[in-house]
Amino acid sequence: MRRPRRMTPRRPLRRRAFSLIEAVISTVIVGGLMVVALNTVGASKARQYNTRQRCLGRHLAQGLMAEILPLAYEEPVDTPLFGAEPSENTGCRTIYDDVDDYHQWSASPPQNKDGTAMANLTGWRRQADVRYTEQDEFGSPVGADRGVKRISVEVSYNDVPVVTLWAVRTRNDQQALDD
Of 73, 125, 128, 171, which sits with the fewest C-beta atoms within 10 Å of its C-beta? Predict the structure, then answer.
């Protein structure tokens, strides 16, 4: 005959669940990670915006500098004066014929050479300055013409400088271009 099987009492299965403490800790960890992730995304967007502003500013500055550099060192037609001659003070740069015509020139919003405003550039400003300088010390302006002019173009957005370009133009450069 068979022996009856001995029955061992079964332990009741415990159901495992999150306790309140575990839920709170998980929430704090996930919340902290979310804050870090959002800060990273925000910093990335700010960096992209600043890069886009610098690229646009550089483009605007290079455009104005490319417009100035091919011009004559000094007035080719009228009596040479430093700055725009009286006949050139029309607000339209199409009649500028030498680099110092751009001395203390400024426009906001930036303008095309014919004086029309460039589209979608509200808040931007382009300004140019031309100074006589030393042949071996381009950063020091001097009062008399020594054959070297320093040209600077600054582009700013909402009065905050974004890009500044510098170039030097010499009287000898003009002779080389004429040859």
Answer: 171
